């Protein structure tokens, strides 16, 4: 028996683990990406499924599942290179595939791991952005319109902001915008786009807007828990290295989130005399969103202040301003993404410009350069101008993301409704899941049998049956 270790002829040991490759960094990056993926599948899938009326549980969860799969396909086919590839415009990269072995095994533009790892890591960020948008249009958007919306918005909106903010060639990246892990690219974008899409899709039925209780609060909490814990990878993975900065980002994330949740609950008790579980989840989400652009570049005391702000300011905009504004109430934002993501994301971006600490900026960016929070600019009199400039850049980033998402989302929705209706018919809205998919979430009568209208009635039997009629008139005729 030979003592020589056998390797496949095309995969020699030095090629599988070249000098530039760091095994620990690669392992953490893959783990972080999977944690972020779990935030969507199954995190937001069951949070949405449990947080809506029973008749919309299947449709809401299915919108998440479809978006995740669709984004993954589009991302490797053209989306990643448009977001992180060669510069086409100051805010957009050239379209190209990320499927070739040579490209995928080459080192990523940041980090000591291959492009394949970076493509995967960024794909789950792109996916969760679309899934967050879905939260604004649950309970009435035509599923076929959603199927068209996802690839179009990924291509003509997400790639704009991702390239501008995160790609080294992007104009906002060159200006020095601080967006540690997606406060702008993901949360501000999804909040603005979701609210805009909700305007074009139109409202739910009046009775659903007036009363839309969760069908399963415990299930919703389970999804929320996955979202919170998954954020460890969301913010902990963005230094692209197993570093002290990654550890700080994770701790700051959980500190800000806990503070925000407690603040929101305290306000509920003070003004409504009752602690709300749903309110606690909203406070959790606003805390997670607010700390995201700042996670690894602020100190713990600043993360605590950010938690106090994210638990109170979005609470005021949602519970006071929104409820007293006829203008805001004209748009039916099912999961309040305007407040939990757009406002909380903007707040996080502004507070990042205030509290970003020069030493931590050096750890993250490699050089402090002009990255300095206004607080530290005033502390070091010689850098006041840099601190003021940083705040200005943070505001410019907000304006750019808002403009891009209002414009592109509106154009996409207008074009889609030329092909299919954006909103389901009122008749279908009365029925919900059964009208949209021929399936229902819970069988709570008889012997638990409720599959006569499903495309896959014989799911226990491996033989797939032919689809039954899904036309309502035909089904009604069959029943009578």
How does this model look, in words?
With 480 residues, the chain is mostly helical. It folds into 2 domains: 398 residues, Ammonium transporter fold, CATH 1.10.3430.10; 37 residues, no CATH class. The N and C termini lie far apart (77 Å).
Sum up the structure in keywords.
480 residues, mainly alpha, Ammonium transporter fold, 2 domains, two-stranded antiparallel sheet, 21 helices, 1% strand, disordered N terminus, RhesusRHD, transport, transmembrane, ammonium channel activity
Give the tally of β-strands.
2
CATH superfamily of the largest domain: Ammonium transporter AmtB like domains
Low-confidence stretches: 1-5, 450-471
Supply the CATH architecture of the largest domain.
Orthogonal Bundle
Largest sheet: 2 strands, antiparallel
Overall tally of structural domains: 2
Cα-atom Rg, whole angstroms? Answer: 23 Å
**Helix/strand/pairing class, anyone?**
mainly alpha
CATH class of the largest domain: Mainly Alpha
Q: Major sheet: order of its strands?
A: 1-2
- Number of helical regions: 21
Helix content: 55-70%
Tell me, briefly, the overall form.
globular
User: What is the H/E string?
Assistant: HHHEEHHHHHHHHHHHHHHHHHH
Mean pLDDT: 89
Report the portion of residues in β strands. Answer: under 5%
GO biological process, one term: ammonium transmembrane transport
InterPro entries: Ammonium/urea_transptr, Ammonium_transpt, NH4_transpt_AmtB-like_dom, RhesusRHD
Family: Belongs to the ammonia transporter channel (TC 1.A.11.2) family.
Main location: membrane
